[in-house]
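Quick one, probably user error.
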């Protein structure tokens, strides 16, 4: 069966992918003069956020390498690629890690992209202080590549499971939908963590408040998708045991206590109570609940493999 390492890999990979996508969007928002400027964050936020992003993605890669057993197999996937979900995921993670490192470096230098501000527009492109249009275009390309890598990682962590015919309970598009929604929510949780430790004279509470609203919408959609998945499990005779395990069986404590209560209900409740005076502590509690729920979701889905009637002894990763 899948080890705990692969659960950690799916969780960290999804959270890192969602975080990368959101940070690239925020980098663009910080240099925009359109409606996205309402999501602007202080420059100190990016210095910490990009370090966290790089660390999360690097840890995800380490979990994948450890699960494969030997590092040589991971480098074989990189150097001798084949048309498999594992190869796509490995390349996307490496690209994401490289982009996160690059933005982390730029945000910590006085000449960095995050340390510049838009002062005028020239042919529709914000011109930066001391920066040529070529540099600005280069940063936009990096943001686009990071966004694409983040989307692929979020989709891949769910598609890797749903593409496995050996586990009937994973054979539905609802699994990647759940993982994408959870990944975006976990990405927002990491934004909350970085924001809670950001000291700045620039107020950005309104930007955080907008993200709490966005996250509430994501959590509601995730809850609806989870309900649809459980209903789908009960609809099929081969997946009914999986539905029983989630609702009232061995996985019920993880499902109801950790995922539903801590990961869905508690964050939504706390997000409606956030205040300007004590938002840092509130953000950390919200982020903790979201991340615990994100891990619980992947643990529950992966653990369904042992309940599948088609599983005899074990489930293995698809061959590279």
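Nope, works fine. Designed sequence:
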């Amino acid at each position: 069966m899948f080890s705990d390492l692969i659960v950690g890999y799916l969780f960290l990979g999804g959270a890192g992918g969602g975080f990368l996508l959101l940070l690239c969007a925020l980098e663009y928002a910080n240099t925009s003069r359109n409606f996205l400027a309402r999501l602007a964050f202080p420059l100190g936020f990016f210095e910490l956020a990009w370090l966290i992003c790089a660390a999360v993605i690097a840890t995800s890669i380490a979990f994948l390498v450890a699960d494969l057993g030997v590092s040589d197999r991971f480098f074989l996937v990189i150097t001798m690629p084949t048309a498999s979900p594992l190869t796509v995921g490995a390349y996307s993670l490496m690209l994401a890690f490289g982009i996160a490192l690059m933005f982390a470096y730029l945000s910590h230098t006085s000449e960095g992209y995050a340390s510049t501000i838009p002062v005028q527009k020239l042919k529709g492109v914000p011109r930066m202080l001391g920066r040529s249009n070529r540099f600005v275009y280069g940063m936009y390309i990096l943001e686009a590549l990071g966004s694409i890598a983040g989307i692929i990682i979020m989709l891949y962590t769910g598609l890797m499971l749903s593409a496995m015919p050996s586990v009937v309970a994973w054979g539905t598009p609802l699994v990647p939908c759940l993982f994408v929604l959870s990944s975006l929510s976990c990405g927002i949780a990491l934004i909350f963590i970085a924001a809670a430790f950001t000291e700045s004279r620039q107020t950005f509470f309104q930007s955080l408040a907008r993200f709490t609203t966005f996250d509430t919408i994501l959590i509601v959609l995730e809850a609806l998708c989870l309900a649809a998945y459980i209903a789908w499990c009960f609809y099929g005779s081969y997946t009914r045991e999986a539905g029983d395990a989630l609702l009232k069986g061995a996985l019920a404590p993880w499902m109801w206590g950790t995922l539903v209560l801590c990961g869905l209900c508690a964050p939504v409740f706390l997000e409606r109570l956030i205040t300007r005076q004590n938002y840092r502590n509130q953000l950390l509690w919200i982020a903790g609940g979201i991340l615990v729920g994100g891990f619980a979701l992947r643990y529950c889905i992966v653990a369904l493999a042992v309940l599948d009637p088609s599983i005899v002894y074990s489930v293995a990763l698809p061959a590279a």
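Residues 129 and 240 are 61 Å apart (CA to CA).
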